[in-house]
Amino acid sequence: MKRINLILVTLALAAAFLGVEIAVVKSAAKYEPEISVVFAKKRIAAQTEISADMLYEKKINVSLAHRLSVKSIKDLEGKKAKTDIEEGEMVLNSRIGGADEMEEIKLEDKNNRLFTVEFKGDQVNGWWLATGQRVDILFVPDEKVKPLSPVQAASKGPAQESGQEGIGAAAYAQPPFCDVAPLREGGLQRLNNIRIAALIDEKGSLLKNTGRETLPKYISFEVTDKQDEFLAYAKSNGRLEVSALPWK
């Protein structure tokens, strides 16, 4: 009898130990180490320099952390966001650039050039413009620049071109300028259908079409190698105005 009781007690203890072992194994199987990951405390606009007050660290399961996630706030201070980072978003290294990293202004035609002009608001439709929009650029010459017709220009000698007719008087009545922007009444000339490649603020940062927190100061136009010559001449010999239709 005692032997039977001993066997029963032994079996009971074995079952108990087995249950404990199973519980421990299940618990271990469910356990997953945590890792500290950086999140955005508030929305961070593209090209914004990042500071510690914009971020917070949170521990999450390793399986939930992106392989490019930033692990420490210290790794982000002084850097810039390449793209918009939304509030509560996990911060990834691919979305972050160095403070001195240059953005790329894209051309539609690789043979074109980028030409930048500084404007005031009343010259550019109150800055109601967008990157990618196409506009006309009007050149209003100074009074000293008295335009000549192509026939008059052809009859002028080099010595006369710098005389009383004004600086460069015949220059923009001849190629390449007359081909790029035909003369109009009063000397007004127009470049048609010019693409805005970028809007740039006073710090040299590229501005997006939405969520602007500052006004542009410069426009970078995509132009041909003839149009850039005309604009270079126009900047020193008159005023440039941007004429724009509403952009959809």
Cα separation of the termini:
96 Å
Query: Class by helix and strand content?
Result: alpha+beta
What's the story with the biggest beta sheet?
A: 5 strands, antiparallel
Task: Please state the oligomeric state of the protein chains shown.
Answer: single chain
Mean pLDDT: 78
Q: How many strand elements?
A: 9
SSE arrangement, N to C: HEEEEEEHHHEEHE
Provide the spatial order of strands within the biggest beta sheet: 5-8-7-6-9
Residue share in β-strands: 15-25%
Number of helices: 5
Radius of gyration, Cα only, in angstroms? Answer: 34 Å
Low-confidence stretches: 148-169
Morphology:
rod-shaped
Fraction of helical residues: 10-25%
Can you characterise this structure?
- This protein has 248 residues and is α+β, with helices and mostly antiparallel strands.
- 21% of the residues are buried.
- The chain has helices spanning 2-30, 150-155, 158-161, 177-180, 227-237, and strands spanning 34-40, 55-61, 80-81, 96-97, 113-118, 134-141, 189-200, 218-223, 238-243.
- The protein has a 5-stranded antiparallel sheet with strand order 5-8-7-6-9, covered by helices on one side. Strands 1-2 form a two-stranded antiparallel sheet.
- Mean pLDDT is 78; it is low at 148-169.
